[in-house]
Design a protein that fits this description.
Layout lengths: L1 H29 L4 E3 L4 H21 L6 H25 L7 E3 L19 H15 L4 H29 L12
Antiparallel strand pairs: 1-2
Helix pairs in contact: 1-2, 2-5, 3-4, 4-5
Length: 182
């Protein structure tokens, strides 16, 4: 159980690192006239993700969940892959990545890295979903995995709609270049 607590603590430390990056990026965006959209769901998102980190070890401890290697090792791989995907998203978006929906006017959509696939518009949320399932299941905290998945699905429905509206509003079709006189 101690090693599982350390794993959850490592994920929590990663989340703190994300917040540091997000704050820095928020300042960068604000300096460029950014607007913040959909702030109403943000406190619920913070509470849900904090709850995940608390519930994982609590369920393992209170319900005396066993460590099942056949489940744990694949879930550790999924967890590592979700972290890799998340940081690929963060690196690809650079200063435009944030935990909030922040739109800097005049910037085109990012089309590189994991954002190059048109069918996967929000790869960061794939990482969030995978992590929310994998982290609890590393130590068979299946109730936490199920509850987080259901609540996260509802929250992501709101978040993705908000983000899509903000992205659509911020991108305007490019006007054709005009000829310059010779």
């Amino acid at each position: 159980m101690i090693w599982y607590g350390l794993l959850v603590a490592a994920v929590a430390a990663e989340r703190v690192a994300e917040l540091v990056v997000a704050r820095r990026n928020e300042r960068w965006s604000a300096a460029r006239g950014a607007t913040v959209a959909g702030q109403g769901h943000y406190p619920a998102m913070v509470a849900l993700h904090t709850g995940l980190l608390i519930a994982c070890p609590v369920e393992v401890w209170l319900a005396d969940r066993p460590f099942v290697p056949a489940l744990a090792w694949p879930m550790l791989v999924v967890l590592a892959a979700s972290q890799a995907l998340r940081w690929w998203c963060i690196r690809t978006l650079g200063p435009r990545w944030n935990t909030r929906v922040i739109i800097v006017p005049g910037l085109p959509l990012v089309t590189g890295g994991p954002y190059r696939w048109r069918w996967l518009r929000h790869p960061n949320y794939v990482a969030v979903v995978a992590e929310g399932v994998a982290l609890p299941l590393v130590h068979t905290a299946w109730v936490t995995a199920a509850v987080f998945t259901v609540l996260n699905a509802a929250l992501l429905t709101v978040r993705v709609r908000c983000e899509n509206r903000a992205l659509t509003a911020s991108t305007t079709p490019a006007t054709p270049a005009t000829s310059l006189p010779a």
